[in-house]
Each structure stands twice: as C-alpha cells, then as structure tokens.
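Sanity check

After download, print the first record. It should look like this:
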Amino acid sequence: MGEQFAGKNVLSVDNSIVRGTTSREIVFMAKEAGAKNVYFASAAPCIRRHHIYGIDLASTSELIAYKRTFDEIAEHIRAEKVIFQDLKDLIDACRQAAPSSNVARETQEFEVGVFDGSYVAPVLAEYFADLEKIRGESKKMKAVENAREAVANGSAGTEVIRMATYDAKVNGEGSVVPSGAYHDDAVPMIGKRKRLPDEDELLPRNRQDMAIHNQHD
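Expected structure tokens:
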C-alpha cells in the first residue's frame, strides 16, 4: 500500500459523508501510508438534515455537514479539501437517467429533505424536536451503559467515572457529557464499598417508638 500512496496526492471518493467517522479513518490511513495530500470527494451532496422516511440517520448535531462549512468539514476529517456533489446537478442527472418516454422527465421532483430540508410532505417543527429528544435519550443511555461497563472492567477514566456515577446528558452540540452536580471532593461510590453504619446508628432515636420498629420482628 505504501508504494501506491507514498509522496502522492490522493483523491478518495465515497458515496456520501454522514458523521465523518469513516472518512476521517480513510484519510488517516492514506496519510499513514505516506500520502502527501488527501482530498475527499462525496458522490452525494452535504447531508445536513433528518431522514424521516425509514432510514434512521444520526441526530442533526452528529451530522458532519450540520452547521459546518466545507473547510471546517475538511479540517475535521484531516483532509486538504472536501468536494461534494451539487444538489442541482444530482437532480439533473436523475432526470436524464429517466426513460425518454417519461412525460414528467424534465419536471420530475425528488425527495431531497436530507440535503436541504425540503421534504415532500410538510413536517411540523415539533416533530423534529421530539425526534432529537428521542435520539438524544437513546444516545445517552448507550453512553451511560458503556461507561458503567468500563468502570466495572477497571478501564474508565475520570470523565467516564463521572458519567457512570452522576448520569449523563446531551449538550447543545450533541455530545454526551456527565450531568448532575459535581464537586472535586466528591467520591464516586462505584467500585467502592459503602461504610456500614455503627450499631448505635441502627437504634431508634425515639425510645417511645420501639413497638413500631419491632412490629415485624
């Protein structure tokens, strides 16, 4: 692989860029193999919005193109430049691919909501708010579960311990972070034994209530 990449400018083409995780890994591998510069091209336009017709895409805050410029996307995946398909060109190409007998060939409309938010069926803003909340809760639960597993395995760092101990929340950027009050002198109880109460602490404070405390003995 090194012979093909060493000292060369590389153009990587993918069908789309969603979260950018795979794209970033590809760029890393190319540069690790010696590529001088890596350019990344997407055969699809920027995916900036929800898909509401059956494909469970990430929350908008997780989409790499959401509120990012092309330069910011390139910086995020460590590429020199990113190139996206133009939405108008994509629509024109799909129209040209339609049979010539199709009378609506030149005026055919397509579902492009994931690219520009123009959905075929009108969608209430409240729907998207609920969708973000549901996906955020699912993401949070998974993160907390992974954090607790890491604590149990003894591989958790400070941030993960905080998340496992004090629960988590999804911030405005879509990231899962520890929630709840936290103080530097707080001691997480996960992985630690609780102090057993002294015998005196188990005795009822009011001797007149002795009958109540002993009614189940």
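If your output differs, re-run the checksum step. Summary of this record's structure: Residues 182-197, 201-217 have pLDDT under 50 and may be disordered.
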